[in-house]
């Protein structure tokens, strides 16, 4: 086999050794193309990881709330009505085939919360236990609100980490202690932090969570539901589930089908898909730029091989005169081209990975926009494939020229 032929390897090393600078400068184009590809893809992945972390685990959640007043009269009712969602709406929504989870929430806005002489204003909300698991909240201490808290309307609360720091001091234990909201005592059962890094989630560090039933009974909110978070069943598009829920609420509250904004909504899936589309575009652009650079490097390698063939015309003629086949000549040229491109590209891959690790090491852990730049193993393998194809492509014309050398004419070459 040509690849195991020691003489061919000796020829390759001799050829590169005779023209070191020329070989290095030409191979640099391939090196730089792979280096750029790896770093551009890693940078795009770092931005994508930051965007995904910002959105959290619920990438297909639907958020609903009572929006603006009606603007179109409908079924004998005048415009200007505000819609108030209630428990019956929740029960009706849960009967829809498209809905998997529903987490209602009631709020009281910002209220003064105190512990002894320490106090500050925090956002107060009442939630179901599923809210914490669905949004992937992390426990710093204690536990989440559970089903018994909800059923028995217990005066238990979960607080964000910032609430704990202000009321009790940094890293202090808060579980088991009492806080006061509008003159009512509540006991802390847990301290949480959100997994998502977006500003909305980070605001929950300054939030006090009550059981949904407790906030409604304690502060006389009746059966009203201020907002709700819904997730569709697996395989169901969030846009379809959103349309079904809004249509149901409009029908129940006699809202004109064309009256937009009465039921406010935000669909996380749309934002997630837009972000994913953006990063697919970045990846495609990275491949385009890098492959263009690699092609420029390959052209340089091809030129080197043409010059090498020209310089070794007499040598090739002698080999053919003593019995070398055109296949062996082509194999030698192909192997030399592959060695140059592969070694240059591999060094570019190693240098790129080293740069990525260096950047990742010095990227702040708290960064919300750029996290864990990385290149997958499959991408590295594709880069190797591109290298091999590039090397083979670079050898086509030189190999064809070498195979066509006439021994008689070559031996007369000066």
Task: Walk me through the structure.
The protein is of the alpha+beta class and 414 residues long. The protein folds into three domains: 2-55 and 276-411, no CATH class; 68-98 and 233-261, no CATH class; 99-231, no CATH class. 54% of the residues lie in helices and 18% in strands. It has helices spanning 6-18, 20-55, 87-94, 129-134, 147-151, 161-168, 199-202, 212-218, 238-252, 268-311, 313-321, 326-362, 377-403, 407-411; strands spanning 62-66, 85-86, 99-115, 118-127, 138-142, 156-160, 178-181, 184-193, 207-211, 224-225, 227-232, 263-267. The strands form two sheets. Strands 3-4-9-6-8-7 form a six-stranded mixed β-barrel. Strand 7 and strand 8 (184-193) form a beta hairpin. The longest helix is centred in the last third of the chain and has 44 residues, at 268-311. The radius of gyration is 34 Å and the shape is elongated. The protein starts with 5 loop residues before the first helix and ends with a helix. The mean pLDDT is 81.
